Every structure is written in structure tokens, then in C-alpha cells.
Amino acid sequence: xxxxxxxxxxxxxxxxxxxxxxxxxxxxxxxxxxxxxxxxxxxxxxxxxxxxxxxxxxxxxxxxxxxxx
Length: 69
What we know:
By secondary structure, the chain is an all-alpha fold. The chain has one domain (8-64). The protein contains two helices and no strands. It has helices at 8-34, 38-64. α1 (8-34) packs antiparallel against α2 (38-64). 1% of the residues are buried. The model has no long low-confidence stretch (mean pLDDT 90).
């Protein structure tokens, strides 16, 4: 079978995940500046780094757009 791209509902679900991941990344970055515990700050910094990578991957998938025929 040939891969023809994403269906509309798949694109919409990926967009929803992208929005959620952006909110989580923003929250972790904001909390990182507010916490005093170095261990927690390190965990939040790692989360921001991983979230940014995931966001780029999701953006690439969403940019493909739906395959409407």
C-alpha cells in the first residue's frame, strides 16, 4: 500500500497534541524560573528540552496537512 499522507482527523488530532505540548512546555519553562530546588529545576529543564524536540517533530507532521481528495 502506498502512503498518501494524513487524513483530516489525523491532522486535527496532531494539531491538538501540538497545542497541548506547547502549553506543557510553557508551564515547565515558567515553573523552572520559580522553583528553588535544584533537582526539580533540573527535571523541568530536561522536560523543556525534550518538549521542544517533540514540538518540532509534531510541527513537521502537521505541516504535511491532510490529504483531501
